[in-house]
Amino acid sequence: xxxxxxxxxxxxxxxxxxxxxxxxxxxxxxxxxxxxxxxxxxxxxxxxxxxxxxxxxxxxxxxxxxxxxxxxxxxxxxxxxxxxxxxxxxxxxxxxxxxxxxxxxxxxxxxxxxxxxxxxxxxxxxxxxxxxxxxxxxxxxxxxxxxxxxxxxxxxxxxxxxxxxxxxxxxxxxxxxxxxxxxxxxxxxxxxxxxxxxxxxxxxxxxxxxxxxxxxxxxxxxxxxxxxxxxxxxxxxxxxxxxxxxxxxxxxx
Length: 253
Ligand code: PGA
Hints:
The protein has 253 residues and is of the alpha/beta class. It is 42% helix and 15% strand. The chain has helices at residues 18-32, 49-56, 82-87, 98-103, 108-120, 133-137, 141-156, 182-197, 201-206, 220-224, 241-250, and strands spanning 7-11, 39-43, 61-65, 92-95, 124-129, 165-168, 208-212, 231-234. An 8-stranded parallel beta barrel has the order 1-2-3-4-5-6-7-8, surrounded by 5 helices. The chain binds 2-phosphoglycolic acid.
Protein backbone atom coordinates (compact mmCIF):
# COMPACT_ATOMS: atom_id res chain seq x y z
CA UNK A 1 0.00 0.00 0.00
CA UNK A 2 1.29 3.44 -0.87
CA UNK A 3 2.02 5.70 2.06
CA UNK A 4 0.17 8.93 1.74
CA UNK A 5 0.99 11.84 3.97
CA UNK A 6 -2.00 13.52 5.57
CA UNK A 7 -3.31 16.95 4.68
CA UNK A 8 -5.49 19.14 6.87
CA UNK A 9 -7.01 22.06 4.96
CA UNK A 10 -9.12 24.80 6.52
CA UNK A 11 -11.99 26.18 4.47
CA UNK A 12 -12.81 29.54 5.99
CA UNK A 13 -15.82 30.10 3.71
CA UNK A 14 -17.07 33.72 3.91
CA UNK A 15 -15.60 34.46 7.32
CA UNK A 16 -12.77 36.59 8.62
CA UNK A 17 -11.41 40.09 8.91
CA UNK A 18 -7.88 41.39 8.70
CA UNK A 19 -7.61 41.49 12.49
CA UNK A 20 -9.16 38.06 13.12
CA UNK A 21 -7.14 36.43 10.37
CA UNK A 22 -3.88 37.69 11.79
CA UNK A 23 -4.50 36.10 15.19
CA UNK A 24 -5.70 32.85 13.67
CA UNK A 25 -2.83 32.51 11.17
CA UNK A 26 -0.21 33.45 13.77
CA UNK A 27 -1.61 30.81 16.11
CA UNK A 28 -1.66 28.11 13.42
CA UNK A 29 1.90 28.82 12.35
CA UNK A 30 3.35 28.95 15.84
CA UNK A 31 1.41 26.02 17.28
CA UNK A 32 1.82 23.50 14.46
CA UNK A 33 5.45 24.13 13.54
CA UNK A 34 6.59 20.88 15.15
CA UNK A 35 4.23 18.71 13.09
CA UNK A 36 6.43 17.08 10.53
CA UNK A 37 4.31 14.49 8.87
CA UNK A 38 1.07 16.34 8.16
CA UNK A 39 0.67 19.10 5.61
CA UNK A 40 -1.45 22.06 6.60
CA UNK A 41 -3.28 24.57 4.40
CA UNK A 42 -5.92 27.27 4.65
CA UNK A 43 -8.34 28.36 1.91
CA UNK A 44 -9.18 31.99 2.59
CA UNK A 45 -11.57 34.49 0.96
CA UNK A 46 -9.99 36.19 -2.08
CA UNK A 47 -9.49 39.61 -0.44
CA UNK A 48 -7.30 38.04 2.23
CA UNK A 49 -4.93 36.19 -0.06
CA UNK A 50 -2.39 39.00 0.26
CA UNK A 51 -2.54 38.59 4.03
CA UNK A 52 -2.19 34.83 3.91
CA UNK A 53 0.79 35.29 1.62
CA UNK A 54 2.44 37.86 3.84
CA UNK A 55 2.00 35.82 7.06
CA UNK A 56 2.47 32.30 5.68
CA UNK A 57 5.29 32.77 3.16
CA UNK A 58 8.33 30.79 4.32
CA UNK A 59 6.30 28.85 6.89
CA UNK A 60 5.13 25.23 6.74
CA UNK A 61 1.50 26.31 6.16
CA UNK A 62 0.23 26.60 2.57
CA UNK A 63 -2.69 28.70 1.43
CA UNK A 64 -5.22 28.77 -1.34
CA UNK A 65 -8.63 29.93 -2.53
CA UNK A 66 -12.11 28.47 -2.21
CA UNK A 67 -13.03 28.81 -5.86
CA UNK A 68 -11.43 29.73 -9.18
CA UNK A 69 -12.70 30.78 -12.58
CA UNK A 70 -12.84 28.22 -15.36
CA UNK A 71 -11.70 30.99 -17.73
CA UNK A 72 -8.12 32.00 -18.24
CA UNK A 73 -8.60 35.75 -18.56
CA UNK A 74 -10.76 38.36 -20.24
CA UNK A 75 -14.17 39.97 -19.94
CA UNK A 76 -15.54 37.93 -17.01
CA UNK A 77 -16.65 40.53 -14.49
CA UNK A 78 -16.28 39.36 -10.92
CA UNK A 79 -14.21 36.29 -11.72
CA UNK A 80 -10.75 35.45 -10.36
CA UNK A 81 -8.39 33.47 -12.54
CA UNK A 82 -6.05 30.67 -11.54
CA UNK A 83 -3.06 32.77 -12.65
CA UNK A 84 -4.13 35.50 -10.20
CA UNK A 85 -4.17 32.93 -7.40
CA UNK A 86 -0.68 31.83 -8.37
CA UNK A 87 0.33 35.51 -8.29
CA UNK A 88 -0.61 35.54 -4.59
CA UNK A 89 1.42 32.42 -3.89
CA UNK A 90 -1.54 30.03 -3.66
CA UNK A 91 -0.83 26.36 -3.76
CA UNK A 92 -4.42 25.11 -3.65
CA UNK A 93 -7.84 25.97 -5.04
CA UNK A 94 -10.98 24.24 -3.82
CA UNK A 95 -13.28 23.35 -6.71
CA UNK A 96 -16.79 21.94 -6.63
CA UNK A 97 -17.59 22.61 -3.00
CA UNK A 98 -21.21 21.58 -2.41
CA UNK A 99 -22.13 25.17 -1.51
CA UNK A 100 -20.93 26.26 -4.96
CA UNK A 101 -22.79 23.41 -6.62
CA UNK A 102 -26.03 24.04 -4.70
CA UNK A 103 -26.10 27.82 -4.28
CA UNK A 104 -24.20 29.03 -7.34
CA UNK A 105 -25.35 26.54 -9.93
CA UNK A 106 -22.02 24.85 -10.64
CA UNK A 107 -22.58 21.54 -12.38
CA UNK A 108 -20.02 18.76 -12.63
CA UNK A 109 -18.83 19.89 -16.05
CA UNK A 110 -18.19 23.44 -14.83
CA UNK A 111 -16.35 22.02 -11.85
CA UNK A 112 -14.23 19.91 -14.20
CA UNK A 113 -13.37 23.02 -16.22
CA UNK A 114 -12.33 24.79 -13.02
CA UNK A 115 -10.23 21.79 -12.02
CA UNK A 116 -8.47 21.91 -15.39
CA UNK A 117 -7.95 25.68 -15.25
CA UNK A 118 -6.45 25.44 -11.76
CA UNK A 119 -4.03 22.72 -12.80
CA UNK A 120 -3.04 24.47 -16.00
CA UNK A 121 -1.86 27.42 -13.91
CA UNK A 122 0.11 25.18 -11.55
CA UNK A 123 -2.35 25.00 -8.65
CA UNK A 124 -3.35 21.81 -6.89
CA UNK A 125 -7.13 21.54 -7.07
CA UNK A 126 -8.99 20.17 -4.07
CA UNK A 127 -12.00 18.57 -5.75
CA UNK A 128 -15.05 18.22 -3.49
CA UNK A 129 -17.63 15.53 -4.10
CA UNK A 130 -20.48 14.22 -2.00
CA UNK A 131 -24.14 13.33 -1.78
CA UNK A 132 -27.12 15.06 -0.13
CA UNK A 133 -29.14 13.44 2.64
CA UNK A 134 -31.92 12.68 0.21
CA UNK A 135 -29.49 10.95 -2.14
CA UNK A 136 -28.00 8.91 0.71
CA UNK A 137 -31.43 7.85 1.89
CA UNK A 138 -32.48 6.79 -1.58
CA UNK A 139 -29.32 4.70 -1.91
CA UNK A 140 -27.63 6.61 -4.73
CA UNK A 141 -24.53 7.87 -2.88
CA UNK A 142 -22.14 5.91 -5.09
CA UNK A 143 -23.81 7.02 -8.32
CA UNK A 144 -23.69 10.67 -7.27
CA UNK A 145 -20.05 10.56 -6.22
CA UNK A 146 -19.14 8.61 -9.37
CA UNK A 147 -20.83 11.16 -11.64
CA UNK A 148 -18.98 14.05 -9.94
CA UNK A 149 -15.67 12.23 -10.20
CA UNK A 150 -16.16 10.93 -13.74
CA UNK A 151 -16.84 14.44 -15.08
CA UNK A 152 -13.29 15.39 -14.12
CA UNK A 153 -11.71 12.15 -15.34
CA UNK A 154 -13.48 12.49 -18.70
CA UNK A 155 -12.27 16.05 -19.21
CA UNK A 156 -8.73 15.79 -17.88
CA UNK A 157 -7.83 12.09 -17.97
CA UNK A 158 -7.16 10.04 -14.87
CA UNK A 159 -3.50 11.07 -14.67
CA UNK A 160 -4.50 14.63 -13.83
CA UNK A 161 -5.74 13.32 -10.50
CA UNK A 162 -2.12 12.61 -9.52
CA UNK A 163 -1.54 16.28 -8.92
CA UNK A 164 -4.79 16.94 -7.11
CA UNK A 165 -6.50 16.25 -3.82
CA UNK A 166 -10.02 14.88 -3.43
CA UNK A 167 -12.39 15.71 -0.61
CA UNK A 168 -15.38 13.53 0.12
CA UNK A 169 -17.88 15.79 1.82
CA UNK A 170 -21.35 14.37 2.44
CA UNK A 171 -23.59 17.44 2.13
CA UNK A 172 -25.69 16.35 5.11
CA UNK A 173 -22.61 16.51 7.33
CA UNK A 174 -21.46 19.99 6.33
CA UNK A 175 -22.01 22.63 8.99
CA UNK A 176 -24.65 20.44 10.64
CA UNK A 177 -22.64 18.96 13.49
CA UNK A 178 -23.63 15.56 12.08
CA UNK A 179 -20.41 13.80 11.11
CA UNK A 180 -20.35 10.66 9.01
CA UNK A 181 -19.20 7.78 11.16
CA UNK A 182 -15.63 6.71 10.42
CA UNK A 183 -17.02 3.57 8.76
CA UNK A 184 -19.55 5.49 6.61
CA UNK A 185 -16.77 7.79 5.45
CA UNK A 186 -14.32 4.93 4.91
CA UNK A 187 -16.86 3.05 2.77
CA UNK A 188 -17.24 5.96 0.36
CA UNK A 189 -13.50 6.69 0.35
CA UNK A 190 -12.84 3.07 -0.55
CA UNK A 191 -15.43 3.28 -3.32
CA UNK A 192 -13.78 6.44 -4.70
CA UNK A 193 -10.38 4.81 -4.61
CA UNK A 194 -11.61 1.67 -6.33
CA UNK A 195 -13.30 3.68 -9.07
CA UNK A 196 -10.05 5.49 -9.79
CA UNK A 197 -8.07 2.25 -9.52
CA UNK A 198 -10.19 0.83 -12.33
CA UNK A 199 -8.54 3.49 -14.55
CA UNK A 200 -5.11 3.48 -12.96
CA UNK A 201 -4.18 1.68 -9.73
CA UNK A 202 -1.00 3.71 -9.23
CA UNK A 203 -2.85 7.04 -9.40
CA UNK A 204 -5.46 5.71 -6.99
CA UNK A 205 -2.92 4.45 -4.48
CA UNK A 206 -1.13 7.79 -4.27
CA UNK A 207 -4.13 10.12 -4.30
CA UNK A 208 -5.02 11.90 -1.07
CA UNK A 209 -8.74 11.70 -0.30
CA UNK A 210 -9.78 14.01 2.55
CA UNK A 211 -12.97 13.75 4.55
CA UNK A 212 -15.00 16.90 5.22
CA UNK A 213 -18.19 17.52 7.16
CA UNK A 214 -18.29 18.58 10.81
CA UNK A 215 -14.74 17.43 11.55
CA UNK A 216 -13.70 18.73 14.96
CA UNK A 217 -10.98 18.12 17.52
CA UNK A 218 -13.12 15.47 19.21
CA UNK A 219 -13.70 13.27 16.14
CA UNK A 220 -10.68 13.93 13.90
CA UNK A 221 -8.46 11.12 15.16
CA UNK A 222 -11.03 8.37 14.65
CA UNK A 223 -11.69 9.56 11.09
CA UNK A 224 -8.04 10.03 10.17
CA UNK A 225 -7.06 6.54 11.26
CA UNK A 226 -9.30 4.91 8.64
CA UNK A 227 -7.20 3.37 5.84
CA UNK A 228 -8.56 5.48 2.97
CA UNK A 229 -8.95 8.81 4.80
CA UNK A 230 -5.92 11.00 4.25
CA UNK A 231 -6.84 14.05 6.30
CA UNK A 232 -9.65 16.56 6.39
CA UNK A 233 -11.25 19.61 4.83
CA UNK A 234 -12.37 21.62 7.81
CA UNK A 235 -15.01 24.35 7.77
CA UNK A 236 -16.33 25.74 11.07
CA UNK A 237 -13.58 24.26 13.23
CA UNK A 238 -10.87 25.85 11.06
CA UNK A 239 -11.88 29.28 12.39
CA UNK A 240 -11.04 28.37 15.99
CA UNK A 241 -7.31 28.12 16.62
CA UNK A 242 -7.53 25.52 19.41
CA UNK A 243 -9.78 23.29 17.33
CA UNK A 244 -7.79 23.56 14.12
CA UNK A 245 -4.47 22.98 15.86
CA UNK A 246 -5.90 19.90 17.60
CA UNK A 247 -7.19 18.56 14.27
CA UNK A 248 -3.73 19.06 12.70
CA UNK A 249 -2.31 17.23 15.68
CA UNK A 250 -4.67 14.32 15.08
CA UNK A 251 -3.29 14.02 11.54
CA UNK A 252 0.35 13.86 12.47
CA UNK A 253 0.64 10.09 12.42
P1 PGA B 1 -17.80 22.00 8.22
O1 PGA B 1 -17.56 22.34 6.68
O2 PGA B 1 -16.50 21.46 8.77
O3 PGA B 1 -18.21 23.31 8.86
O4 PGA B 1 -18.89 20.99 8.28
C1 PGA B 1 -16.74 21.54 5.87
C2 PGA B 1 -16.69 22.10 4.48
O5 PGA B 1 -17.69 22.67 4.02
O6 PGA B 1 -15.65 22.03 3.79
